[in-house]
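Pasting as-is:
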Amino acid sequence: MIRIDVPRTAAEAERVQDQLRARLVLDRPGPATIRTAAGLDVAYSGEDRLVAAVVVLDAATLTQVDRSVVRRRAAFPYVPGLFAFRELPALADALVALRTVPDLLVCDGHGIAHPRRFGLACHLGVLTGRPTVGVAKTALVGRWDPPGPARGDWSPLTDRGDVVGRVLRTRPGVKPVFVSVGSGLDLETATRHVLALTPRYRLPETTRAADHLARAALSEHPD
C-alpha cells in the first residue's frame, strides 16, 4: 500500500512538497541495468474525471509484462506547480495493482525540473522508494540551448544556477524531450535508460504504452 494524504489547500500542499523534498535520493548512480520499466500516464474526461494507467515493459525487448488501470476523480484542484496532487492517488493505486515491481518508473512529467524542485516523478519516487525519472514534452522551468541534431545529443537544462535536467534528442531532427531525475538515480543514468527505452519514436515506449492504455480505457468508459 502507498499512503497518499491529499492536502486541503495549496499552502498545505506546498508544505508537503517541502517536507518530502528532504527525502529525495539524488546522489547515487542508481541501477546500471534494469529488467523492467513502467510508464505512468493519466487521461482526463472533462475537468475532474481521470484514468491512471501503468504499463510495465521488459527493458530489453520492450514487450509488455504487466499493466493496470484505475478510474478516479481528480483528488486536488488544478494549481500550477501542484499538479501532481491531482493524479497521485490514482497512480499510486494503479502501481499497487501491478503484479510486477518495476525497476524504474518513467513519468509523463517532471522530476526536479520543477519550480519547487519536486514534480510528479519526485513525489512518486519518495512514496514508492523506486528509481524514478520524469520525461516531459515541454519544459516547466529553466533555460537551455538546443541540443545537437543527432540521436543522443543533449544540452543541460538549468534553473536559477542549478542543472535540473537534460534536453535530450531522441530522434534525429525531431523536437527533444526534457529529462529530469525524480529520485533514486543520477541524471547520467536516467538519460541512458530513457534513451534505451526510446528506440523508434520521440517518447519512450513506456510513455507511449501507458498513454495508449489510458486513452483506450477512457474511450471504453468516457463517463
